[in-house]
Design brief:
heterotetramer, A mainly alpha (408), B alpha/beta (505), C alpha/beta (325), B: 505 residues, Rossmann fold, six-stranded mixed β-sheet, globular, C: 325 residues, alpha/beta, seven-stranded mixed β-sheet, binds adenosine-5'-triphosphate, binds magnesium ion, cell membrane (chains A, D), transmembrane helix (chains A, D), cell inner membrane (chains A, D), membrane (chains A, D)
């Protein structure tokens, strides 16, 4: 995640001593949208933390909160790709419900094991993705239409697959995807989860190593780098933040598998969007399709790939959701598409394409989930819950637009 | 005092990080044609946008005095009411709407909000006749070429019956013939008492019609002079702040082997499959030469380039050989891989991703050279971008700047940088200096020369005859989709080129 | 006014098959799938035409579909209304076409209904409330209800609260969370349960879950805290999954409404009405406009003690399914 | 409606004898999208007409069908404005539900009469429209966000207003808006509705007069017109079509008030979009916002007006819906936004703005309603109903895109 702030530092090889202030200010400006939302998220946490007498920020609740957010976060991660390329996917909700039901049918009715079920379900997701990609990329039908059609279709298909009944229960191994925590390995009686602690330390070490290697490589290329003292301060701050978040889970029941999966997907997608040609092409297509085409980018192939990825990710989200409930129901996935789109937008993805980050979308998903969780925790009336959520969405985007205008 | 129709005093306008105008004073006499010249990014367009209310009162400092009265325009409507009409540098037309609708957009023939369409179309036709554009006013803008669109813009401005008419580079997309028409029209309007501010990088036009010249450099006024006291060289040195001894840095080239050979190239209209846009075109381009392609607007030069580049939607027949080998180019990617690159005539629509930064735009056509296993080495990318930014002297605070925030000339250089990075064997430049100032043009010509020295074959499509004559080693003239004549540069003259371009045999 | 439909029939006696229209609210819940299956089977047995329409929880769609059924010339219309008040229109339209209407499962309010057949919805809530208060005498309750936009959810809750509220007023019980579950989604129920458990440090003594699906969600949240089976929780619908949970001890109870009986009875009554006869109503229920002749079947509370008898012996569920490990 | 085809005829004042074929071909090309969809609509009718043994095309069913389509059609009519300007309104569904509930509360709980209820409800709609307009026009927040926030907010507000219970019944006069037919005035025992017949004849006469006057005016200005014979043929064909549609209703129970209202709104909105400066500005803003701004169009005011109109139209749609059900339910309006958007798109409105017609949107609404009606009439399984609807949406748009590409 942190890699993102670094790439955008201004570089000036001809002059090796730019003012530190300038670097900081410029880095702040470049990432203003994410910072605004991060501050909003922290604000929400502080608010609910205070009015709930600290219950909201307890390890247990935050751990719950992350798990409640995970399905939407997975969908939002790939929705960023779709939206950056200038499309939209309205089908993810009913498709996630459908694919969750497919997994349940394969496991409960057909009797397949966990691994075959996962593979087959992802395959079905992939096929749906190819179907979407075909129409969008090769037949030129707007994604809005293609996925609206699918949204309707899969709303029907889920009834066909489940025959209207709830399908349960899933196998324990499958269930663990949505509900399980990393087991304790060495210290079964410690008050914290040892495996999770080890993994957390590995995460932090990996970050330090990558950050350091990045610095070395920049020095090798003769680019400006932060003075060593500042770089170290920055590194320590980020490490502490990482440790804080991870320790929430370590001191509760450990890191849930679902969160581990999400972290993996976020790192993967951040990497794809920032470091691969495919990712770059996605941004170029969303920014100016004609220019991208004349620069030799294969727009069809790129669009097809985007929807294939979206299909597989929807399958993953659907399975995590089914695993968490340990059942597939016919109403599953209803309106998830809007939550995922809202998360992406709150996190800075443009509705016009060309802009957006995966990390932002995760922050967006956390913002909406935190609101849901906090208000339900405080037992607020459902009427106000809806209204507050709507207003926060509106205000978040507005504050962001206003600050961006000022600092552009 | 009162013979000034317009006085802009001590205008200062800042954008975040850029002081676009710094205490500019600009005065225009009643009834004159007043030229505003300066390098790219000097602040000409910004000054005019301040005047027309695009940047409303309060976003700049200084005073605007129109016909003796201080004005505080809040928006464009107010400046129109005060008698100012402006043609912006960027075409401001709605593509899905008809020519007639566009001409009167914002000034409809209406009564209580209800439009009289019949009246509108009749009037529209009159204004189209006035700018000598013979098209049906019900045609949609998207069916027009960029030059025709420019004429529609001019008709739109004239229709406002303003007494102060501002034209920001109106001839950038026009051919000689249309330019002639336009200049004559301006002179006619002047005779009717219309004052005109004329912005152009084409100094010959400036001297043909302008009475007074004001020069801007880096957001400051350098001076205002009667046109007869100046000549082109003097203006150029005032603009760039140094002497430019020659306009076209012609260097002797020694053409080598044939790199590109095109045989019986025929291209059909994508919408009307049996209508030929190009018929039986044959030509060769050699290593280390600049091949100029001249022609009137609509002669099919852009279609030729696009079809060679694999980017044209219509059916094509014919053969193409690169370094003697037959090649089948079906997409821009194929073309780029074969070493054939194309810089399009419309940088904003087809050249740049405006919301991306300079770095990412430059690397876009040749990302694979920065990659191992499709993973981008961002340090290499920065290094490459730095190199082209320095080589092409792109004026920018950093390579992280969004290209949308650059001036036109600098944007053009970014696109050029993109194609240089793709290391082409044949580079097709379509109107490479459109909307670019003399200083930057000179730099681009120098870049072309050094490319040719490195063995690149350049095909230059241009509607500016001096450029064609000044830079090409060989000139091909197109007329209505056919090659109508070929001249070595020593024999190419303005008269001959125009003779062929208008269909002479 | 169902008598008048007889005149036309006289012209073409016997050889024309009886056509009955059936409009159901959804197929997204197991119980409604069973209703349909039971009625289709009965119709087949009797050799009559049954035209089925599913409105997918949409009142307007239900009305359109009922119009379509009327257009197609059904002789009797069985409506399980999505919304008890909004469906009054359907009755009026049917009557305008001289078609009698049976209000199935949910009573259509404020209009002249020909026959009402149901399990009492408020009674369902009462049974849930009764069971819960029998098992939880003192302590904190989580009260969940169905979709906030579903009138039936309001009715279930009303019935349950009739029993629970007096104890709350007395101070024995305390409602710590009172939330609806959007779309009857188990994930919503799970989230609310998680949050309530957190907010009350697991100090929860009972859960009112409006149906089996939402109960399933709550049980997932309880299980995460090792509380599954320790906290009494209600349900409704007698889904297979719920029966399994009752046997395992994680869910306390469910409600059994033998929809096969109801469905069969509805078809039989409809056939009678189509022939111009009067069905034998055993009751009268006021719907705000009139006392509607009614056939009421009793809902049954099912828990571990009677599950074998009620659900398995009746053939509603299979023993090997329920006790499947 | 027909006026639309006429304005787009090519005009050539310098040359008074263009070939007739050219005129016809060109007029066909200009309106190809609408013709495609009209043909699709007729195709659907023929198909269901055959497989339902004619029941589908009975006067009674078609009359039902029009009424079933009316709420979505009203929403789609104003959605065209919103979408042409490059926005979207995701809130219309929950807002229509909310406003329907407001009307029901005002009537049933507060005890207001029909007229005050209608006026107050429209006022509330207007205020919501101003709220949307404020954020979109003056705060620069994308309409997608503003209306997504409202969608959530009004989902909550409707629960607050109705307290989760259905509110019914409405007063008879109010109910008539959604259910009533024009009464018979002179011939109470005729087998057709005399008032409706008279109104139908008036409609047809009005069309003939307008069409003729238009021809005269064009001749006066020296524009090309169709040869008299062709013009007459055209007029007769259109009159027959109008008569056919109207006679369906005349021979059943008469023209429903709701349809009369819809016809009025469609004529009004066609007029607004084609003949007024406001309408032109909407297209200009959607086509090229910068150009519109540089042409001196007040973009903020125009956007504000668009959303104000949308608010009022949503109120009308909500009331018609409530009147039709004779009750306000908390689930009312669910997903109407997608139906309305789909209708507009099927009818040729571009998702990118700048293109779209009101008549097209009405055809789009009829296409989806006809499918719903036909499949329900044929008693198809709900699973297939959803899937077929999705597929038809996809295919309709694709065929349209494909034909447009060929003939543009
Ligand atoms: N909207 C904007 N935001 C930020 N900077 C701007 C903006 N518009 C113009 N500038 C900057 O202001 C300066 C003056 O630009 P302007 O467009 O007026 O130049 P110009 O003289 O018209 O150049 P050209 O000949 O290329 O059209 C340039 O440095 C340009 O980058
Ligand atoms: N979108 C279009 N639809 C129909 N015809 C077109 C379209 N674009 C171009 N044409 C036609 O194709 C021919 C060549 O046009 P084009 O403007 O590309 O020529 P050019 O020589 O490149 O001129 P320019 O100076 O404008 O670049 C002309 O006859 C023109 O009218
Ligand atoms: Mg300029
Ligand atoms: Mg060209």
């Amino acid at each position: 995640m942190a890699s993102n702030t670094q790439t955008n530092l201004p570089i000036n090889p001809t002059n090796n001593t730019p003012s530190i202030k300038k670097i900081l200010v410029s880095s702040l400006k470049q990432n203003i949208r994410q910072y605004t939302m991060l501050i909003a998220l922290i604000g929400i946490w502080v608010f609910f933390g205070i009015i709930s007498d600290g219950i909201f920020v307890s390890a247990r609740n935050l751990s719950n909160l992350f798990l409640q957010a995970v399905t939407i976060a997975i969908l939002a991660t790939s929705m960023v790709l779709v939206m950056v390329a200038g499309h939209i996917d309205l089908s993810v909700g009913s498709l996630a419900g459908f694919l969750g039901a497919v997994a349940a049918v394969l496991m409960v009715k057909v009797g397949l094991g966990t691994i075959p079920t996962i593979i087959l379900t992802m395959l079905v997701g992939l096929i749906v993705g190819i179907w979407h990609g075909y129409w969008v990329a090769y037949r030129g039908v707007p994604a809005f239409i293609v996925t609206l059609a699918s949204m309707m279709g899969f709303k029907g298909a889920i009834i066909g697959v489940t025959k209207g009944a709830t399908i349960a229960p899933m196998l324990p191994a499958f269930k663990a995807i949505g509900q399980g925590y990393l087991p304790k390995l060495f210290l079964p009686h410690a008050s914290f989860n040892d495996t999770s602690a080890i993994i957390s330390v590995i995460f932090i070490l990996l970050f330090i190593i990558f950050d350091w290697r990045k610095r070395q490589s920049r020095i090798k290329y003769g680019f400006t780098v932060l003075p060593l003292s500042l770089q170290l301060i920055r590194m320590v701050v980020i490490c502490i933040a990482m440790a804080a978040v991870l320790s929430i889970m370590v001191t509760y029941m450990g890191i849930p598998y679902a969160i581990l999966l999400l972290i993996g997907l976020v790192v993967l997608f951040s990497f794809i969007t920032e470091k691969t040609t495919f990712g770059r092409y996605v941004y170029a297509i969303g920014g100016n399709k004609e220019a991208a085409r004349l620069s030799g980018i294969n727009i069809r192939k790129t669009n097809m790939t985007i929807f294939m990825i979206m299909g597989v990710m929807t399958a993953i989200a659907g399975m995590v959701f089914t695993a968490r409930l340990n059942a597939a129901t016919t109403a599953a996935g209803n309106l998830f598409e809007l939550d995922a789109i809202a998360a992406a937008i709150i996190g800075g993805t443009s509705t016009m394409g060309g802009e957006g980050t995966v990390v932002g979308a995760i922050i967006g998903a956390l913002v909406t989930s935190s609101l849901d969780n906090g208000m339900s925790l405080m037992d607020w009336d459902i009427t106000y819950q809806y209204i507050v959520k709507g207003l926060v969405l509106l205000l978040a985007v507005w504050v962001d637009i206003a600050t961006r205008k000022k600092s552009a | 005092m009162s013979d000034y129709i317009l006085e802009m005093v001590n205008i200062t306008k800042e954008f975040p990080g850029v002081k676009a105008l710094d205490n500019v004073t600009f005065k225009v006499k009643k009834g004159e044609i007043h030229a505003l010249v300066g390098e790219n990014g000097a602040g000409k367009s910004t000054l005019m946008k301040v005047l027309s209310g695009v940047y409303p009162t309060g976003t700049y400092t200084g005073d605007i005095v129109l016909k003796g009265q201080t004005q505080h325009f809040q928006n464009i409507k107010e400046s129109e009411h005060a008698g100012i009409a402006i043609i912006y540098q960027e075409l401001a037309l709605v593509k899905q709407m008809s020519v007639g609708e566009n001409i009167f957009l914002g000034n409809e023939f209406q009564e209580r909000g209800i439009i009289d369409w019949d009246q509108s179309y009749i009037e529209a036709k009159k204004y189209l006749d006035e700018v000598r554009l013979d098209i049906n006013p019900a045609t949609k803008i998207l069916h027009l070429g960029i030059g025709q669109q420019q004429l529609v813009e001019i008709a739109k401005a004239i229709s406002k019956k303003a007494n102060l008419l501002i034209l920001d580079e109106p001839t950038a997309a026009l051919t000689e013939h249309e330019t002639d028409n336009l200049l004559n029209l301006l002179v006619e309007l002047k005779a009717k008492g219309v004052t005109c501010i004329y912005i152009s990088h084409k100094l010959n036009e400036v001297f043909r019609i302008c009475d007074t010249v004001t020069i801007l450099r880096d957001g400051k006024t350098i001076g205002t002079y009667p046109a007869q006291e100046l000549n082109e060289d003097r203006v150029i040195s005032l603009m760039v702040g140094r002497e430019l001894t020659q306009r076209f840095p012609r260097k002797p080239h020694t053409p080598g082997d044939v790199v590109l050979e095109v045989k019986n190239w025929t291209v059909y209209n994508p919408e009307i499959p049996d209508k030929k846009i190009l018929s039986n075109v044959n030509f060769t381009a050699r290593k280390g030469e600049i091949l100029g392609i001249a022609g009137l607007m609509g002669a099919g030069r852009t279609e030729l380039a696009m079809s060679l580049f694999g980017a044209y939607a219509g059916k094509r027949t014919g053969e193409m050989f690169l370094e003697g080998k037959p090649v089948d180019v079906t997409s821009p990617r194929d073309a780029i891989n074969q070493g054939l690159c194309y810089l399009s005539e419309d940088r904003k629509q087809y050249g740049l991703v405006l919301m991306m930064d300079i770095k990412n735009n430059i690397s876009m056509a040749n990302l694979s050279s920065l990659c191992t296993n499709n993973i981008i080495n961002s340090n290499e990318e920065v290094r490459a971008a730095e190199r082209y930014t320095n080589d092409l002297k792109i004026k920018t605070p950093s390579i992280e700047q969004k290209t949308g925030n650059l001036s036109g000339g600098n944007q053009q250089k970014v696109v050029l940088g993109k194609w240089l990075m793709a290391s082409p064997k044949v580079l097709i430049l379509d109107e490479p200096t459109r909307g670019i100032d003399v200083g930057a043009k000179f730099e681009i010509y120098n870049i072309m020369n050094s490319l040719v020295d490195q063995g690149v074959s350049i095909i230059m499509i241009s509607s500016e005859l001096p450029e064609i004559l000044g830079m090409s080693d060989r000139v091909i003239v197109m007329h209505e989709g056919k090659f109508n004549g070929e001249l070595p540069w020593e024999e190419a003259t303005q008269e001959k080129v125009i003779f062929y371009a208008t269909g002479g045999q | 006014g169902c008598g008048s439909s007889g005149d036309k029939k006289a012209e073409a006696p016997k050889e024309k098959k009886i056509v009955i229209g059936l409009s159901l609210p959804t197929q997204r819940e197991e119980r409604w799938v069973r209703d349909r299956d039971a009625m289709v089977a009965e119709a087949k047995k009797l050799g009559i035409d049954l035209e089925v329409q599913i409105s997918d929880n949409d009142s307007a769609k239900q009305e359109s579909q009922a119009e379509n059924l009327i257009t197609k010339g059904v002789q009797v219309l069985i409506v399980a209304p999505n919304d008890s008040k909004a469906a009054a229109n359907i009755v009026e339209k049917a009557h305008a076409a001289k078609i009698p209407v049976i209000s199935y499962d949910r009573l259509i309010l404020g209009t002249d209904v020909d026959l009402y057949m149901s399990f009492d919805n408020e009674k369902v809530g009462e049974l849930q409330g009764k069971w819960l208060t029998d098992h939880v005498k003192k302590g904190n309750l989580i009260v969940l209800s169905g979709d906030p936009g579903d009138n039936n959810a309001t009715l279930f809750k009303k019935g349950a609260m009739q029993i629970i509220q007096p104890l709350v007023d007395k101070g024995d019980l305390k409602i710590v969370t009172d939330q609806p579950c959007k779309d009857w989604q188990p994930s919503e129920a799970m989230k609310h349960a998680e949050d309530a458990l957190t907010a009350n440090h697991n100090d929860i003594q009972g859960v009112l879950a409006p149906n089996d699906n939402t109960a399933g969600g709550v049980i997932q949240a309880l299980a995460a805290q090792g509380l599954a089976g320790k906290v009494p929780i209600t349900g409704q619908d007698s889904d297979l999954a719920a029966a399994q949970r009752i046997v395992q001890g994680t869910q306390g109870m469910t409600i059994f409404k033998d929809t096969r009986e109801l469905g069969k009875a509805a078809i039989d009554a409809a056939v009678k009405m189509a022939k111009g006869e009067k069905p034998d109503a055993n009751n009268k229920v006021n719907n705000g406009k009139m006392d509607v002749p009614s056939i009421l079947l009793p809902p049954v509370a099912v828990d571990k003690s009677n599950i074998d008898k009620v659900l398995i012996d009746s053939g509603y569920l299979k023993k090997e399914d329920v006790y499947k490990k």
